Amino acid sequence: MRHYISLSILLFASAVALAGTEVPGWGGPIANDKGIEALGWLAGIGSQPDNYLLLFAAASPARPTATKEVVTSDGYVNLVRNGRSIGVASQFTVRAYTDSIPAASTGSATTPANGTASVDIAVGSLDAAPNYISNPTGGVQLSPVAVHLEACTARALASPGKPVQLVTGCTGRSNYISSRGVKVADIPATADNMVVRIPEDTTEPPIAFVFVNERITTDIHGNPTTDENGRYKFDPTATSGYVNIARIASIDDSFDVLTLGHAAVVRDPAMTDK
After folding, report:
1. How many structural domains comprise the chain?
2. Where does the signal peptide begin and end (predicted)?
3. How far apart are CA 236 and CA 79, in angstroms?
4. Which domain, by its residues, includes 206?
């Protein structure tokens, strides 16, 4: 029996936030004889592996924190951590499959596809922050650091004989990063691995870094691919990887990391390409 690395996030807050080029890894071995795994979630937050909360997560194979292959909501949903809000989302779907792929852009129907692992996420709108503070006037939220996202998708697809496919993007009319009620940066529809320091003024100490449309290749154990110096490097031949529509890495006493629209797959070609 071969053991693969579960797609359960490890925390990395200080290294990620301060270096800006570091990326998170994975941890938690599980038994898996097929060499494929899929995990996705709408939102996740925490500062340590053992306290990382997943909200609206889907997985294949199932796990205690993600027991279903499909999680969906047609209306507005409050995202809550320990009784405190981290945001509001509407019209979202998270789908995670192995040995099959979605038969259509919506719904739970699938088409058989041996050796594949896929996660598809669609979000109508998402307002989120590690410490969410809504604006009573209805304007930009008052959180110290936050994102507003509309019409977003994320996809990770691992197929036999092919490199992993990683796709993210938000095509709505208003996508931005904000701080204390002020828009800091617009998020272009074509943004790819965008990084924004909060505050942007480098004469002031940072409180967070925001990463948008992260597309990270990994090895078959979920560890980010690296160069000869051990720094992350995108590998166009990788069979595994993950995406985040957005990630907020806080630099404060909490060191919380908030991930939004996370889709991750692993595939071992030695097991799937026989």
Report:
1. 1
2. 1-19
3. 35
4. 3-272
